[in-house]
Each structure stands twice: as C-alpha cells, then as structure tokens.
C-alpha cells in the first residue's frame, strides 16, 4: 500500500475526492454551528470579536492537530466571521519565495490567507513570510549577483491562518509570529454523534440515536471519518435495508467495509495479527513487522501505528513494537504464559 493508497482508506483521515465535494455542503458556516473543540472555539471567538470591535484585521492564527479535525473549516469560519474573502493554498505549493510574493501581493485589505500544511513550505518562502506577517511588506529581489536590488513591496493588512499536523516542525521564529495558536483535539463519542446527526439531516438521511452511536464509536475520534462512514452506511441502508440507519444496519454495513467496533480496518488488524501470531506479541522491529504484513515501513509507521498506539493496542519501546494485553483481547487471542519467549530476537 503506497501513501496515496493509504490515504483512500475508509478510516483514513486524509480527504479523498468525494470528501472534498461533500464537505462543502456539510461544513459549518459559523463558530456557533461548529461542533466540538470548545476551548479553541471560545478563544478564537474572543480574538475575532475583539478584532471586529477595533475595526481591524484579526491576528494571525495557527491551528495544529491531526487531519480531519476541522482546521480548514475553522479557517473558512474566520473569514466568514470577519466578513472577508479567503485565499487558499498549501505549503507544498509554495516552493519558491517568488510563489509567496505573488500570492501576498495580490491580497486585498483584510483578506484571509489560509496556508495548509504550513510546515512543508520551502525555507526561502518561509523567511519571506516572517517579514510579511510582522511588517506587512516583502523585499522583492531584482537582478542577480552584485547588481541585485531589493525593492520593498508594501502589503495590505491580512490575516494568515496556518494549519499543520506537525507543529514541532515549524521553526520558532514562525510560530512566534502567530497571535493565536489553537490545538485541535480528537473528538469524543458524544460530539461525533452530534456531528453525525447534523450531517444526516443535511444529507436527508434517517439515523436513530443508536445508529449514530454505532458509527461514532468506529470513527476514530475524527469528524471527517464519521461523515465518510455515514455516507457508506447510508448506501448500505438504501440498498439492503429500508433506508433508516439503526445500530444493526450500521454494524452490518461497516462489517462489509471491514471496519470493526473500535474503528480498526484491514491494515490495522493485519499489523496486530502479525505482531501477535507471528512474533508472540513482540518486541519486534518496525522493518520486520512491515515485511510480515507486506507493506512499506512508512505505511505501517505513519498510517497504522498512530491509531493503534492511541487506542492502547500497541506500544513503541526501545527494543521494538510490543502488543498490549488489550490487543490480545481485541483479536480474541490468549497471550503466552510468562515472559515473551522471543525476547529481543526480532529487534531489527
């Protein structure tokens, strides 16, 4: 499974083409409609209200957290609350200082610039952004060598909203230029149920309380996954049931799509199964584990492991990956008696 293919998993947090189209219809338009992230919503509401009262632009905003938690939605809400247009781009698309200068020079007064995956922006562009965020100007270099000249270009006041899944990769000078930083947390089941009921109403899908709870419990704490599972369960309910999503219908539908009661899919169970059945629960090295499941090392480490660790099913140790008692119980297997006979045999 390549990284592109892993992004298309039903329980993958990365958006697919259908998500992009549907999210536009399901996306909240204001902070009042936004579900969850109460602390971030309250803090951001204060920032925006104060900016409107002063009649100026809002401070630059940095949103961090896992994919699918609503960073893009909040960026659009910032623009809507400020009554300003929004320009959307991403770090990988800004690979030269000239790319960023072109974007910044075309901004309007008060406009919101949303820079997704800001940690992947090229270093020359990143250094240009420092001055743009703080002094609202950039120096455009004309010519080369000793005859090069820096021409200062004044910029309109704008609000930068940066989104990142890896805040630790941002250099301190860039982080320090954001006036507000919000960290997005995973959602609880009750919040996801509210998300599902709201989305079901917008999609004209009938879902009862138990059905929403069944989907929420398998959504890995992520609204994007909850909405994706809802659409797949809707398809099943329309084709093989009476169109109403109940707990039983949701369970049968997600069994078809190989998403179990804790949100694990085929890849997750393959990793756990290999760790338990082939290596006695570990410790085992990441490369060995990846070979055992027929996947790339990066796929196991970046796609499967984070959720398994967060669920307490797998632990990373200096000697390798180790299954927890919860992993044995989840797969219905009995752990070996006494210390693992393998010890450090598979630490490669």
UniProtKB/TrEMBL annotation:
CDD domains: AAA
Cell location: Cytoplasm
Enzyme category, top tier: hydrolase
Binding-site residues for Mg(2+), renumbered to this chain: 72
Entry function: The RuvA-RuvB-RuvC complex processes Holliday junction (HJ) DNA during genetic recombination and DNA repair, while the RuvA-RuvB complex plays an important role in the rescue of blocked DNA replication forks via replication fork reversal (RFR). RuvA specifically binds to HJ cruciform DNA, conferring on it an open structure. The RuvB hexamer acts as an ATP-dependent pump, pulling dsDNA into and through the RuvAB complex. RuvB forms 2 homohexamers on either side of HJ DNA bound by 1 or 2 RuvA tetramers; 4 subunits per hexamer contact DNA at a time.
Subunit structure as annotated in this protein's UniProt entry: Homohexamer. Forms an RuvA(8)-RuvB(12)-Holliday junction (HJ) complex. HJ DNA is sandwiched between 2 RuvA tetramers; dsDNA enters through RuvA and exits via RuvB. An RuvB hexamer assembles on each DNA strand where it exits the tetramer. Each RuvB hexamer is contacted by two RuvA subunits (via domain III) on 2 adjacent RuvB subunits; this complex drives branch migration. In the full resolvosome a probable DNA-RuvA(4)-RuvB(12)-RuvC(2) complex forms which resolves the HJ.
Full protein name: Holliday junction branch migration complex subunit RuvB
Organism field: Streptomyces aidingensis
Name of the gene: ruvB
């Amino acid at each position: 499974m390549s990284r592109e293919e892993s992004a298309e998993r039903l329980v993958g947090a990365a958006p697919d083409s259908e998500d992009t189209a549907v999210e536009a219809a399901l996306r909240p338009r204001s902070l009042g409609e936004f579900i969850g992230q109460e602390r971030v919503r309250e803090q951001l509401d204060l920032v925006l209200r104060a900016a409107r009262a002063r009649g100026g632009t809002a401070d630059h905003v940095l949103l961090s957290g896992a994919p699918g938690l609503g960073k893009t939605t909040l960026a659009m809400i910032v623009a809507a609350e400020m009554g300003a247009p929004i320009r959307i781009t991403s770090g990988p698309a800004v690979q030269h200082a000239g790319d960023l200068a072109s974007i910044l020079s075309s901004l309007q007064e008060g406009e919101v610039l949303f820079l997704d995956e800001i940690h992947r922006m090229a270093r020359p562009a990143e250094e240009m952004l420092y001055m743009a965020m703080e002094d609202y100007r950039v120096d455009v270099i004309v010519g080369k060598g000793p005859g090069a000249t820096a021409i200062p270009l004044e910029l309109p006041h704008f609000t930068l909203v940066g989104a990142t899944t890896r805040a630790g990769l941002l250099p301190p000078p860039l982080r320090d230029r954001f006036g507000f930083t919000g960290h997005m947390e995973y959602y609880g089941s009750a919040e996801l149920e509210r998300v599902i009921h709201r989305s079901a109403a917008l999609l004209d899908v009938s879902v009862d309380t138990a059905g929403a709870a069944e989907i929420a419990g398998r959504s890995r704490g992520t609204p994007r996954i909850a909405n994706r599972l809802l659409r797949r369960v809707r398809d099943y309910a329309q084709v093989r049931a009476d169109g109403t999503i109940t707990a039983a219908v949701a369970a049968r539908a997600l069994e078809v799509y190989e998403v179990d009661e804790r949100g694990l899919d085929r890849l997750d169970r393959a990793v756990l199964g290999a760790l338990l059945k082939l290596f006695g629960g570990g410790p085992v090295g990441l490369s060995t584990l990846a070979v055992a499941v027929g996947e790339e090392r990066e796929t196991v480490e970046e796609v499967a492991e984070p959720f398994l660790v967060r669920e307490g099913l797998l632990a990373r140790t200096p000697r390798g990956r180790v299954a927890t008692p919860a992993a044995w119980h989840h797969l219905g297997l009995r752990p070996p008696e006494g210390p693992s006979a393998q010890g450090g045999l598979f630490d490669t």
